[in-house]
Design a protein that fits this description.
The complex is a heterodimer of chains A (about 160) and B (about 100). Chain A is of the alpha+beta class and about 160 residues long. Chain A has 4 helices and 8 strands; from the N terminus they run E-E-H-H-E-E-E-E-E-E-H-H. In chain A, helix 1 packs across helix 2. Chain B has a single domain, classed as Winged helix-like DNA-binding domain superfamily/Winged helix DNA-binding domain (Arc Repressor Mutant, subunit A, Orthogonal Bundle). In chain B, strands 1-2 form a two-stranded antiparallel ribbon. At the A-B interface, strand 2, helix 1, helix 2, helix 3 and helix 4 of A face helix 1 and helix 6 of B.
């Protein structure tokens, strides 16, 4: 099974598509997106709020090891169909980036495998380029290191 | 003020991308490149200059003629700029999968 995460970012477009297949039943894949404590673990962030329902809102806060908040994001949920799809917005607080629109589709491949397709739509082509380059930015790296720590401690 | 050209801005322009695909096939003189476009020779010159500044093109002199070549190394860099973003998601999803394997339906 092709397990690698794929990014499909066509030139001259302001959206991109992320796909990934999982060795998980679609119900568990979906659950990883809806339970605040699970989202906190794999996203490496504090989940301040996550109302997993239509018209719900969400809010994340990521701190560095000294407790300073380095990253805050929020959004609202536009559509929520269990084990099928989530449509939501994503906005970084205190940044110049416009909110983005995310379509998440959850698909059952077999009883034990599933596929996630995530389409992200940005305000402009330029905004997409900036976001693609963002993983270089320190804030997210820091969040990432914290996540590694948490998982190492679990073992 | 643009002291250093951004390679991503350079390839955002359709004419410049067309120039890149032309010289990818063979090294060309500025005149031969311009002959493929309706724009003025001056406009095309400007595009070539931008592409050269960000090292997507490099030039060689052959007698009196200047030839522009594609710099494949630089093109490869552009190709791989998505990789850290992809890797970030890949690692997140690996964690998600590892965590969820401990859960039951």
């Amino acid at each position: 099974m092709e397990k690698k995460t794929k990014i499909h970012a066509e030139e001259n477009r302001q959206d991109l598509i992320i796909t990934r297949e999982f060795d998980l039943p679609v119900e568990l894949l979906f659950k990883a997106y809806t339970e605040p404590e699970i989202v906190a673990q794999w996203m490496g962030t504090k989940v301040v709020k996550l109302e997993s329902k239509k018209y719900g809102a969400w809010q994340f806060e990521t701190s560095d090891p000294n407790g300073n908040i380095v990253f805050k994001a929020n959004g609202v949920i536009h559509d929520f169909i269990p084990n099928e799809k989530i449509v939501r917005t994503f906005e970084m607080d205190n940044s110049n980036f416009a909110p983005q629109l995310e379509f998440l589709e959850f698909e059952k491949l077999s009883d034990d495998t599933s596929k996630l397709t995530m389409q992200i739509i940005y305000k402009s082509i330029e905004h997409r380029t900036t976001q693609l380059k963002l993983p270089f930015a320190q804030g997210l790296n820091m969040a990432h290191n914290r996540l590694e720590e948490i998982l190492l401690n679990l073992k | 003020m643009e002291t250093r050209r951004d390679v991503f801005q350079a390839i955002a322009d359709p004419t410049r991308r067309a120039i890149l695909s032309l010289v990818a096939l063979q090294a060309m003189t500025p005149g031969a490149i311009a002959a493929n476009f309706d724009s003025s020779r001056q406009t095309i010159s400007k595009h070539i200059q931008i592409l050269s500044e960000c090292e997507l093109l490099h030039q060689t002199q052959n007698g009196r003629e200047i030839y522009y070549h594609l710099n494949p190394q630089k093109m490869k860099e552009i190709d791989s700029f998505i990789e850290p973003f992809r890797k970030m998601w890949d690692e997140r999803f690996d964690k998600l999968e590892a965590i969820m394997k401990n859960y039951k339906k």
